[in-house]
Write a structure and sequence with these properties.
Layout: E1 17-21, H1 27-30, H2 34-45, H3 62-69, E2 78-85, E3 91-98, H4 102-111, E4 118-119, E5 124-125, E6 127-136, E7 139-145, H5 150-153, H6 155-161, E8 174-186, E9 189-202, E10 205-218, E11 221-240, E12 246-264, E13 267-274, E14 280-286, E15 291-293
Antiparallel strand pairs: 1-12, 2-3, 3-6, 4-5, 6-7, 8-9, 9-10, 10-11, 11-12, 12-13, 13-14, 14-15
């Protein structure tokens, strides 16, 4: 089988938008994509991220929700819950994010900003659970759940762990939002997305990576079927100017996911396209692995 190579490993090979500006004030004007503009606003202006995980439907209590989606977690360790409507018939996709202990949960709530944030004890995202359910007539009707936190079932994390010699490839350090675009990966199978990422801090700048993970339902479980890089942004401080300001080197790469008409073992092939040079990588369904592979 061909080795799975996360696209982030190809970032240095794939052309990216890159430019140099004379000072920090000029940075927002050259950022091309909304992801980068949001990163800059959060990092430099303290903007709060949108509620990317939504809110539990009215009438569904947190205790009832986490009692089903994460029955083995201590409610005192809860950081965040949320849900978004998915399709028809009152279906929702919900999340619950937990820290390892109550003290860490308290700290995370102060700074999480609507995300499932990093666990600074291990550099990975805190424990995020997924659940698909129906909410009708004020009744929770379970459909499927992840059973384990995403950091244990993520294909991206498993691939990143094998790339320990590459510092730019790391397990996800936070989760930011649900992506409920209609990812119909087979005629009778609809997937949904969860976006997360990680960052690298440098002297005078940093780099940010966003990963899209697709999940679907198999029996009563939620499984990860696809994971790959969809956005990269870096801002590196450069030479000093005579007026005391500093130049900044800005780089961006954005990838979009396309569903192709061709199928492999009943599932549509996926194509990840680099918007800068239109290069792409095609992923095919592996029945034995129950996920997409290049």
């Amino acid at each position: 089988m061909k080795k799975f190579v996360p696209l982030v490993l190809l970032a240095s090979l794939s052309p990216a938008f890159a430019t140099t500006v004379q000072n920090l004030d000029a940075v927002p004007g050259v950022i091309q994509h909304t992801e980068g503009k949001q990163i800059f606003a959060e990092q430099m202006a303290g903007a709060t991220p949108a509620k990317g995980f939504g809110e539990l439907p009215q009438g569904l209590s947190e205790n009832q929700w986490i009692g089903w989606v994460a029955p083995n977690e201590n409610p005192n360790n809860l950081i965040l819950t949320g849900a978004k409507a998915w399709g028809k018939e009152g279906k929702y996709i919900g999340i619950a994010c937990f820290a390892d202990n109550q003290a860490d949960a308290g700290q995370a709530k102060k700074y999480a900003d609507n995300t499932c944030p990093e666990n600074y004890n291990n550099g990975r995202a805190n424990k995020l659970y997924l659940g698909v359910f129906s909410w009708q007539n004020q009744q929770l009707q379970p459909i499927a759940r992840s059973e384990k936190p995403l950091n244990q079932i993520s294909a991206w994390n498993k691939a990143a762990e094998k790339e320990s010699d590459d510092e730019s490839v790391r397990p996800l350090a936070y989760y930011t939002k649900l992506d409920l675009a209609p990812y119909r990966i087979a005629p009778d199978t609809l997937a949904f997305g969860v976006r997360g990422g990680y960052s690298d801090a440098y002297s005078g700048g940093g780099a940010f990576y966003e990963v899209l993970e697709l999940y679907t339902i198999k029996d009563s479980k939620i499984i990860n079927v696809f994971s790959d890089l969809v956005y990269y942004y870096s801002d590196i401080a450069g030479d000093w100017n005579k007026d005391g300001t500093r130049q900044h080197d800005i780089s961006e790469s954005k990838y979009i996911l396309k569903l192709r008409s061709a199928k492999t073992q009943g599932f549509y092939d996926l194509e990840v396209v680099n918007l800068q040079d239109k290069s792409s990588q095609i992923f095919h369904w592996s029945e034995s692995l129950q996920q997409y592979v290049p």
